[in-house]
Amino acid sequence: MPWNPDIYNQFKAIRYKPFYDLAGLIAGDSAKKAIDIGCGTGEQTYILSQKFKEADFTGIDASAEMLAKSGEWKSDRLHFKQQTIEAFVATGEKWDLIFSNSVLQWSDDHETLFPAIISLLNEEGEFAIQMPVQKENVLNQLLTKLAQEEPYLTQLDGFNRSSPVLSMDQYVTLMFENGLQDIQVMQKVYPIIANDHQTLFDFISGSALIPYLERLSAQEHDSFLKEFKARIARHFPALPAIYAFKRLLLYGRKRKS
Questions:
Q1: Per-residue confidence at 1, pLDDT binned at 50, 70, 90?
Q2: Is the CB of residue 156 less than 8 Å from the CB of residue 44?
Q3: What is the arrangement of strands in the sheet containing 33-37, beginning at the earlier edge strand?
Q4: What radius of gyration do the chain's Cα atoms show?
Q5: E strand or H helix at 68, and its extent?
Q6: What is the pLDDT of residues 154-184, one digit of tens each?
Q7: CA 7 from chain center: how many Å?
Q8: Which of 31, 45, 147, 166 is nearest to 104 (CA)?
Q9: What CATH code is assigned to 5-254?
Q10: Is 18 exposed, middle or buried (0-12, 13-18, 19+ CB in 10 A)?
Q11: Cβ(127)–Cβ(250) below 8 Å
Q12: C-alpha distances in Å from residue 103, one per residue of 41, 132, 147
């Protein structure tokens, strides 16, 4: 099932708050070459490029559907291409700024991935990453629990998306041991106020729900969604409801050799 930028952007205001917080952690303004991993529609990459007027920016994303919206943001120093994170790492290309807002949670084995990404920084290059803390977010917990139960366990052929996101302590260690300084690692709650249960369902349907639905038939799909919506309603009996959506923000600068 392809990503749908229209559904994803229904919560644009909510999703942009951690982006601005992450961008605010970037200390320098001398970057000449920058990349946005998981650039989506490209609008956030454009905003970031306005902060660094001297930098050439590249935005990469694995989703052709999301990148289809990026054309309006292109410029002489802002370019986009379809590329996976794995292919990006394999290039070995060096950067002054590596930025990624809410995408690395989709890649496994962070103990290997993060050192590989950090190795692509130039001296004094900056590293800024944001990810949802999926294991602690209630909607993700409801989703993974449902997938563990029958008949969905069989229908999904045992699939369940286990979040690769590590603890703050683990990221601090990985960042330090791989040559970063000025390290900042923090968890922040971005509350969502929902006047109805559909709002909560819509929020997760544009992201974490996608890999489950693409593994189900149309009939199974309808049953799974009906039960998932019912569990959301039971967990949030009072409306309006507040959903404490937790995100992890990571920043560091590459030490001189």
A1: very low
A2: no
A3: 78-82, 56-61, 33-37, 95-101, 121-132, 241-254, 180-194
A4: 19
A5: none
A6: 999 999 998 999 999 999 999 999 999 999 9
A7: 15
A8: 166
A9: 3.40.50.150
A10: buried
A11: yes
A12: 13, 9, 22
Q: What is the pLDDT of residues 8-18, one digit of tens each?
A: 556 667 778 99
Residue 8 CA to residue 142 CA, distance in Å, equals: 20
CA proximity to 203, closest of 242, 169, 234: 242
Whole-number Å distance between alpha carbons of 117 and 129: 11
pTM for this predicted structure: 0.92
d(CA 131, CA 123): 25
Tokens 């990459």 correspond to: 45
The ranges assigned to domains in the chain are 5-254
Range of weakest confidence among 26-35, 88-97, 130-139: 26-35
Answer yes or no: are the C-beta atoms of 76 and 15 closer than 8 Å.
no
